[in-house]
Amino acid sequence: MILSDDHIRSIIKEALKFRKPRGSSSGRNSYSDVGSSSDFEYKTGNTKIGSRVNWGPGEGGEKRKVAWAFLSQFLPDGSMLTSCYRSQSDQERIIKNYAEKNKYTGDKNDFNAMHAFIKSKGLVVARRIGKGHGGKQNTGAFDVSGADLDAIWEGVEAANNDPNKIAKFDKLKQGSIIERKNNAVHVQFRLRNVDLSKKDLLAKKEDSTSPGGSADKSSVTSVQIVHKNASITDGIDDKVYPALKAVVKDGKNKGTYLQIKDDQRTFKRIKPGAPVFKGAKRTFAIVKDNDEVKELIASA
Questions:
Q1: Which of 132, 182, 206, 276 is most buried by a 10 A CB count?
Q2: Domain residue ranges of the chain, discontinuous segments joined by +
Q3: Has residue 207 got a pLDDT over 70?
């Protein structure tokens, strides 16, 4: 079945709807100060929230919640939010935990020494809170782990290309980082780029059905174009090709695809890492019987 562009948009819009939250009569500016997986009111797919996650105070805390609820829809199964807002004491606890995991034997009360030690191990952790986790200059940040790091980042890119634009996240090396030593993706964003006026598009945890229909969408496949003009070298003739990069978010064809525009050759990610299309270290494999995948990508 070929899904039309309008059909795809209507599916995504319907999947994101929810009823107004209960007990919201206190007004738009009433926010909780902290949050964890137990009190998080939005649906987050097959992702998790760590027990120590703190959203932060006031409107900034609400914006971090909404940003995570939005981003989580695009992340691979098993992704976990391990850290969001931090106080300086939180930061020092993290530094100490990393130091102990790496067999630090010095003074456990000397945070400068512990920070220097974990830095020497290649770990990326700030000594003091600032932009991102610390919320300075009206910023926010998520540390996401639990799944393939490249697939997590592809989810961030897909969120940034979503037409609803509920939140926008910083690009790699412009605030966001893939921290391979830490086994996490650090996703940074500016609080002004989280649109609370669109939070009604997010599905609430208590909803079992969307307005006007059943919540069973097992027969529906959602597709997100991440890049319309990616440049890839297929490793076969070392020529650079313009390509589409797409994420199929559910169904039997779930995965990340690169499709060369010139000849419609389509490759699917099979391993984490930079795109490699040939040899024992390849991370993408060509999809041979790809008519259905081509139709899905064409419909997005």
A1: 132
A2: 29-87+129-201, 223-299
A3: no
